[in-house]
TrEMBL record:
Residues 117-133 have a biased composition (Basic and acidic residues). This is Carbohydrate binding domain (Family 25). Residues 104-148 are annotated as: Disordered. Residues 23-103 form the Carbohydrate binding module family domain. It comes from the Bacteria. The lineage of its organism: Bacteria, Bacillati, Bacillota, Clostridia, Eubacteriales. Residues 134-148 have a biased composition (Basic residues). It comes from Acetivibrio saccincola. InterPro entries: CBM25, Ig-like_fold.
Length: 148
């Protein structure tokens, strides 16, 4: 099966998920202009929405000819990314930045897994209650035998 082409793949920018949600941890890969010009270190500058809220610089690790970083997605607005090297050279996609849509809904657990957990919890509570009731009955029976 052929891999789907990503939005900024030609610029050397890729993310590990095609659909990004709040709470996801994604891997960002960069092999773009700065790397091609010999950058020794690269930082991802990220922010959310038009105003670049919660902006931060994330150092990227070099792995052969690709720089990578893990990003925890924390806001339900577009994730904007630009890249900077140690010489203060920037790759910001010709002032357009690299923007990725972020879904507001956090990654959900499957209903089946949630249901299974609830059943196990209910079963454990029932078992504990049965043991407590059994101990009380045994104590009452023992007490009656002692009195006889």
């Amino acid at each position: 099966m052929a891999r789907a082409k990503q939005l900024y793949e030609e610029n050397g920018v890729q993310v590990s998920k095609s659909s990004i949600r709040v709470g996801d941890e994604i891997t960002l890969s960069y092999s773009g202009l700065l790397v091609q010009c010999g950058a020794e270190s690269v930082y991802a500058h990220i922010g959310y929405g038009e105003n670049w809220e919660a902006k931060e610089f994330i150092p990227m690790e070099r792995c052969n000819d690709v720089f990578k970083a893990k990003i925890k997605v924390t806001h339900p607005d577009s994730l904007n990314i630009a890249f900077k090297d140690s010489g203060d050279n920037w790759d910001n996609n010709s002032y357009l930045n690299y923007s990725f849509k972020v879904s507001e809904k956090p990654a959900r657990t499957t209903k089946k897994a949630s249901s299974t957990t609830e059943k196990k919890t209910a079963s454990a509570k029932k078992s504990a209650e049965e043991k407590t009731t059994s101990k009380k009955t045994t104590k009452k029976t023992a007490a009656k035998k002692t009195k006889s």
